[in-house]
Amino acid sequence: MKHLLSAKDLSHDEAVMVLDTAEAMAATQRHAVKKLPTLRGKTVVNLFFEDSTRTRLSFEAAAKRLSADVINFSAKGSSVSKGESLKDTAQTIMAMGADAVVVRHSACGAAHLLAHAGWIDVPVLNAGDGTHQHPTQALLDAMTLRRWYTPGGPASGSARADDGGPAPRGRDLEGARVIIVGDVLHSRVARSNVDLLTTLGAHVTLVAPPTLLPVGMDDWPCDVSYDFDAAIAAVEPDAVMMLRVQRERMSAAGGGYFPSPGEYSRGYGLGAVRRAAMPEHAIVMHPGPMNRGLEITADAADDPRSRVVEQVGNGVSVRMAALYLLLADEGNQL
């Protein structure tokens, strides 16, 4: 595999290899000197046509910790605002000597187009394309869950998770039960996690109001529920992942997806009562940024079982692994 465009493209063994490599990268980040010489002399371009904080900074940190040079491109203030096409932007970047391109774009399929249109001849990593895919987010979520989930029993604060140690090499998520709640319609995170977590053996249940579910759910390898409380009771999840309500996409489409923020929060928000109804070992996840008070309360976001901050840290390790496996001479295995 030359590119990382979709979580669906990863086989079981490839996904486990990326996660194992990410654990190795995480181990290096506990040293006094965090930088590795692996990608010295390589240039990674972060091509971001959409606003981002966590993903852009995470990819930048990952590339720099592998000793690559980084060029950050933002559509705002660039020639894109003057009408420059994606093709011309890509060719300009290639003329600067890029060895890999990380792209985030509002259009579904933009990363695939960039990788296969013949404009560039370097690895492309999809950092989110519209409502389609966000593969490294799914990988960092899987890495987080893998550290806490114990096959055959509850992950009740295992020593592995408490001391920051890695999950066992080669481990998948066979039997893990995950509930993903919220704005599935606009969420590339939900799509990517359904693809990757099921590949790794997990059982995924999506929970959302009917207005926030896409058409064609019969093709998705997961269960669907409209009732958050009933899903918690029936599934007894090992993890509950809350999705951000993407109000910017709703406004562009004219709104009307739920009656009011208060109504949404009562039906699909995670607060103290629902957290208490979850199994004690179940972890709370969120891809960020969080709308505190809408899809998640402050109490739930800051709960001892919340792994939101850990997800951010794991994102650097996962993106280091992806860059290493696609770019390093000794690591080019994807």
From TrEMBL:
<comment type="pathway">
    <text>Pyrimidine metabolism; UMP biosynthesis via de novo pathway; (S)-dihydroorotate from bicarbonate: step 2/3.</text>
</comment>
<dbReference type="GO" id="GO:0006207">
    <property type="term" value="P:'de novo' pyrimidine nucleobase biosynthetic process"/>
</dbReference>
<dbReference type="GO" id="GO:0005829">
    <property type="term" value="C:cytosol"/>
</dbReference>
<feature type="region of interest" description="Disordered">
    <location>
        <begin position="153"/>
        <end position="172"/>
    </location>
</feature>
<dbReference type="InterPro" id="IPR006131">
    <property type="entry name" value="Asp_carbamoyltransf_Asp/Orn-bd"/>
</dbReference>
<protein>
    <recommendedName>
        <fullName>Aspartate carbamoyltransferase</fullName>
        <ecNumber>2.1.3.2</ecNumber>
    </recommendedName>
</protein>
<feature type="domain" description="Aspartate/ornithine carbamoyltransferase carbamoyl-P binding">
    <location>
        <begin position="2"/>
        <end position="146"/>
    </location>
</feature>
<feature type="binding site">
    <location>
        <position position="55"/>
    </location>
    <ligand>
        <name>carbamoyl phosphate</name>
    </ligand>
</feature>
<comment type="function">
    <text>Catalyzes the condensation of carbamoyl phosphate and aspartate to form carbamoyl aspartate and inorganic phosphate, the committed step in the de novo pyrimidine nucleotide biosynthesis pathway.</text>
</comment>
<dbReference type="InterPro" id="IPR036901">
    <property type="entry name" value="Asp/Orn_carbamoylTrfase_sf"/>
</dbReference>
<feature type="binding site">
    <location>
        <position position="137"/>
    </location>
    <ligand>
        <name>carbamoyl phosphate</name>
    </ligand>
</feature>
<keyword id="KW-0665">Pyrimidine biosynthesis</keyword>
<keyword id="KW-0808">Transferase</keyword>
<dbReference type="GO" id="GO:0004070">
    <property type="term" value="F:aspartate carbamoyltransferase activity"/>
</dbReference>
<feature type="binding site">
    <location>
        <position position="288"/>
    </location>
    <ligand>
        <name>carbamoyl phosphate</name>
    </ligand>
</feature>
<dbReference type="InterPro" id="IPR006132">
    <property type="entry name" value="Asp/Orn_carbamoyltranf_P-bd"/>
</dbReference>
<dbReference type="GO" id="GO:0044205">
    <property type="term" value="P:'de novo' UMP biosynthetic process"/>
</dbReference>
<feature type="domain" description="Aspartate/ornithine carbamoyltransferase Asp/Orn-binding">
    <location>
        <begin position="175"/>
        <end position="326"/>
    </location>
</feature>
<feature type="binding site">
    <location>
        <position position="244"/>
    </location>
    <ligand>
        <name>L-aspartate</name>
    </ligand>
</feature>
<feature type="binding site">
    <location>
        <position position="188"/>
    </location>
    <ligand>
        <name>L-aspartate</name>
    </ligand>
</feature>
<dbReference type="InterPro" id="IPR002082">
    <property type="entry name" value="Asp_carbamoyltransf"/>
</dbReference>
<dbReference type="Pfam" id="PF00185">
    <property type="entry name" value="OTCace"/>
</dbReference>
<feature type="binding site">
    <location>
        <position position="289"/>
    </location>
    <ligand>
        <name>carbamoyl phosphate</name>
    </ligand>
</feature>
<feature type="binding site">
    <location>
        <position position="104"/>
    </location>
    <ligand>
        <name>carbamoyl phosphate</name>
    </ligand>
</feature>
<dbReference type="GO" id="GO:0016597">
    <property type="term" value="F:amino acid binding"/>
</dbReference>
<dbReference type="GO" id="GO:0006520">
    <property type="term" value="P:amino acid metabolic process"/>
</dbReference>
<feature type="binding site">
    <location>
        <position position="134"/>
    </location>
    <ligand>
        <name>carbamoyl phosphate</name>
    </ligand>
</feature>
<feature type="binding site">
    <location>
        <position position="82"/>
    </location>
    <ligand>
        <name>L-aspartate</name>
    </ligand>
</feature>
<feature type="binding site">
    <location>
        <position position="54"/>
    </location>
    <ligand>
        <name>carbamoyl phosphate</name>
    </ligand>
</feature>
<dbReference type="InterPro" id="IPR006130">
    <property type="entry name" value="Asp/Orn_carbamoylTrfase"/>
</dbReference>
<dbReference type="Pfam" id="PF02729">
    <property type="entry name" value="OTCace_N"/>
</dbReference>
<comment type="subunit">
    <text>Heterododecamer (2C3:3R2) of six catalytic PyrB chains organized as two trimers (C3), and six regulatory PyrI chains organized as three dimers (R2).</text>
</comment>
<comment type="similarity">
    <text>Belongs to the aspartate/ornithine carbamoyltransferase superfamily. ATCase family.</text>
</comment>
